[in-house]
Amino acid sequence: MVALPRDGEFPITLQGTGVVLWEMLAVPHTAAELISEMAARFGVETSVVGDDLEAALGRFAAAGLIEVAP
Fold first, then answer.
1. For 1-70, where are the alpha helices, taking DSSP H only?
2. Cβ atoms 2, 11 nearer than 8 A
3. Is the dihedral of CA 45, 27, 7, 19 positive or negative?
4. Most buried in the list 12, 25, 53, 57, measured by CB within 10 Å?
5. Residue 3: beta bridge partners?
6. Ranges in the chain, pLDDT < 70
7. pTM score, two decimals?
């Protein structure tokens, strides 16, 4: 999957768990909910996916692909 940032400078390519995360973002979730759901889907501890998921959300937000609610 390819996502185009608002500035259109460079596309972001998603694959594997990135696509799963993107699909989950169709419905508003807290970061904690996303981490729990991803851990459950892939049968791992939340500590395994937490940092990577937070980093991905940060990249999505910085590119203007998502808005982070307070």
1. 17-24, 31-42, 46-62
2. yes
3. positive
4. 53
5. 12
6. 8
7. 0.81
